[in-house]
Amino acid sequence: MAKAMAFLLLLLLAPAAYAQKTHTVGDSSGWNTKVDYEKWARGQNFSIGDFLVFTYDSSHEVNEVNQTDYQNCNTDEEPIHRYSSSPTNISLSKAETYFICPRSNHCSDQGMKLTVTVSGGSTSPGGSKPSPPGTPETPPRPAGGATGILGDRTSLMVGISVVLGALLGLMG
């Protein structure tokens, strides 16, 4: 009976281990001037909760910016987040996230900019608009209340707890 319980527990918890992925930006090249980040991003499948890992040397930084600052490689405005310590780990929590290197024309002249579009994420009709300054950005909820293949993390944990409680009740 104990082996069956352990196997059932493994089956329940194993999918959660695969729910999040870690994406190393630029793969082995890292966050650098010699990488085509548009091409790199097209080869990825990003999901809410995944992690981006930026690895870079002291000649670079990572700024998370709004869409307008991304498109214009604008480094004059205050970024949403500023990172200067490598490796930088960022959890994806929005349908679209924009990153640039703010150092001496690395974005505008050398292509150090990255758009991350989460699969299944949606934007407003006609494209997304930058949030007004000071407005927190929240991830959009998929239509119909669906929250992806595993569902909302809270629902997943509640479901696991209910199943484990029922199994423990049967054993006792």
TrEMBL record:
Q: Which Gene3D superfamilies match?
A: Cupredoxins - blue copper proteins
Source taxon at top rank: Eukaryota
Signal sequence span is 1-19
UniProt keywords, alphabetically: Glycoprotein, Metal-binding, Signal
> What protein is this chain from?
Phytocyanin domain-containing protein
Q: Please give the GO cellular component terms listed in this UniProt entry.
A: plasma membrane
Specify the Phytocyanin domain's residue ranges.
21-120
Which PANTHER family does this UniProt record tie to the protein? BLUE COPPER PROTEIN, UCLACYANIN-2
Q: According to the UniProt entry, which residue ranges have a biased composition of type Low complexity?
A: 117-129
**UniProt xrefs under Pfam families:** Cu_bind_like (PF02298)
Q: Name one GO molecular function term.
A: electron transfer activity
Q: Where is the composition biased (Pro residues)?
A: 130-142
Q: Where is this region: Disordered?
A: 117-150
